[in-house]
């Protein structure tokens, strides 16, 4: 398996969310069985949250222990902690609040009111990532990130890295603040592309015909500055999990239809 993108197409968004949920639990369980814990980086957005809702309905493999799962986020909207716009709040309501997670292993971005501005929250998140790496005995900028989930916007943004903006060009830190995002809310915090690409596995989960152009450009090898999704690569595996609408502009040669249990 290489980090060359592998594309799997499901029939529609419901099948995509359900299959991604099952794939995620299976993968985290396999990693946990191997090294005692597993780390997931969550995304917000429509499919990110629908996938978490679908996880609630997935059967858990024997021995799987949610309290040994580390949770980080790929990005956050810089709004009040209790705002319904917050990716953290949506994830908690969709799934996390129902799981026996260890609170010490759950790492939300800081919120407006806790930090003066998005960049201050980003500096704190970079520091938290570095501390977690140090706790694992490495001197790197991020801990081991097993599976990192991403949504993709119609403009090809990933996390809160938008085309042509400073965040997508930032390489010297793990998280960055954004104050003028084209998608509301304008103030956001995001992992940078180097931090995203430090994950072992990057899964881009995308549904809908409004995303087909972005998916087509990303998989045709566009420049990440113009098409941020083009730059997302896992160290070991990069998987594009699509519905048929999102895949409609891809050449046949790239597609692996899912049998909804596929790989
Ligand atoms: O605002 C955001 O948007 C993207 C994509 O969301 P979608 O609803 O178009 O799928 C998401 O990946 C990101 O986490 C979120 O903050």
From TrEMBL:
Limits of the Glucosamine/galactosamine-6-phosphate isomerase domain: 12-240
Pfam families in alphabetical order: Glucosamine_iso (PF01182)
Keywords: Hydrolase
Signal sequence region: none
The keyword Hydrolase appears for this protein: yes
CDD domains (UniProt xref): 6PGL
EC class name: hydrolase
EC number: 3.1.1.31
InterPro entries: 6-phosphogluconolactonase_DevB, 6PGL, Glc/Gal-6P_isomerase, NagB/RpiA_transferase-like
Gene Ontology molecular function terms on file: 6-phosphogluconolactonase activity
Reaction catalyzed: 6-phospho-D-glucono-1,5-lactone + H2O = 6-phospho-D-gluconate + H(+)
Chain coiled-coil ranges: none
Pathway involvement of the protein, from the record: Carbohydrate degradation; pentose phosphate pathway; D-ribulose 5-phosphate from D-glucose 6-phosphate (oxidative stage): step 2/3
The keyword Magnesium appears for this protein: no
Superkingdom of the organism of origin: Bacteria
Family: Belongs to the glucosamine/galactosamine-6-phosphate isomerase family. 6-phosphogluconolactonase subfamily.
Function: Hydrolysis of 6-phosphogluconolactone to 6-phosphogluconate.
PANTHER family: 6-PHOSPHOGLUCONOLACTONASE
The protein, known as: 6-phosphogluconolactonase
């Amino acid at each position: 398996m290489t980090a060359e993108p592998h594309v799997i197409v499901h029939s529609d968004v419901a099948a995509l969310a359900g299959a991604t949920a099952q794939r995620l639990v299976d993968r985290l369980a396999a990693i946990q069985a191997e090294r005692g814990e597993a780390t997931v980086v969550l995304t917000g957005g429509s499919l990110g949250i629908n996938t978490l809702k679908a996880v609630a309905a997935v059967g858990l493999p024997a021995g799987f222990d949610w309290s040994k799962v580390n949770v980080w986020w790929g990005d956050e909207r810089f709004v009040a902690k209790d705002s319904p716009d917050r990716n953290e709040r949506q994830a908690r309501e969709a799934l996390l609040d129902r799981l026996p997670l260890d609170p010490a292993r759950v790492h939300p971005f800081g919120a407006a009111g806790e930090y003066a501005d998005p960049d201050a929250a980003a500096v704190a998140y970079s520091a938290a990532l570095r501390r977690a790496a140090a706790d694992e005995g490495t001197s790197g900028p991020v801990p081991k990130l097993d599976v990192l989930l991403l949504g993709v916007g119609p403009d090809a943004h990933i996390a809160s890295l938008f085309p042509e903006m400073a965040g997508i060009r930032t390489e010297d830190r793990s998280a960055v603040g954004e104050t003028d995002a084209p998608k509301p809310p304008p103030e956001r915090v995001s992992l940078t592309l180097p931090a995203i690409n430090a994950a072992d596995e990057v899964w881009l989960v995308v549904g809908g015909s409004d995303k087909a152009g972005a998916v087509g450009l990303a998989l045709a090898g566009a420049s990440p500055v113009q098409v941020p999704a083009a730059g997302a690569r896992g160290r070991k595996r990069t998987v594009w999990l699509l519905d048929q609408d999102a895949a409609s502009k891809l050449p046949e040669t790239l597609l692996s239809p899912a049998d909804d249990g596929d790989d």
